[in-house]
């Protein structure tokens, strides 16, 4: 069985200082049933890692969970008539760096000599 209905969105987070950046990709994948989703989660090592978990999951519990998941979140593709359940994965991308000794430091706040409202005349006069 194949996955269907992959959608992707990107969110650039600007709430971090300038020496770190974080991007988040939200990828929504439509699975034929909860069992294919669980198979992929296990392949990504995203299955249950709780210390107090049971080692085995009862078949009746899995079938009931699949039925509830399908009822609550399932959708039918209007064109193909395919039934799917969505799962959204957030992929986080981080980049950070340590300022080097030769990297210029920002000046003290308020130490500027040119007002931003006069910047157009300063730049225009330079050419």
From TrEMBL:
One of its GO terms (biological process) is mitochondrial respiratory chain complex I assembly. GO terms for cellular component: mitochondrion. InterPro entries: Malonyl-ACP_OMT. Keywords: Methyltransferase, Transferase. The keyword Methyltransferase applies. The keyword Transferase applies. GO terms for molecular function: methyltransferase activity. This is Arginine-hydroxylase NDUFAF5, mitochondrial. It comes from Amphibalanus amphitrite (Striped barnacle).
């Amino acid at each position: 069985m194949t996955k269907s209905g992959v959608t992707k969105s990107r969110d650039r987070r600007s709430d971090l200082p300038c020496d770190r950046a974080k991007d988040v990709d939200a990828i929504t994948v439509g699975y034929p049933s909860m069992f294919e989703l669980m198979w992929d989660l296990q392949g990504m090592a995203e299955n249950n890692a709780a210390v107090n978990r049971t080692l085995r999951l009862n078949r009746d519990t899995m079938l009931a969970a699949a039925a509830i998941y399908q009822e609550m979140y399932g959708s039918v593709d209007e064109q193909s008539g395919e039934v799917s359940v969505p799962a959204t994965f957030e992929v986080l991308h981080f980049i950070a760096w340590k300022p080097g000794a030769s990297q210029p430091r920002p000046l003290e706040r308020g130490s500027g000599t040119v007002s931003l409202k006069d910047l157009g005349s300063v730049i225009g006069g330079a050419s």
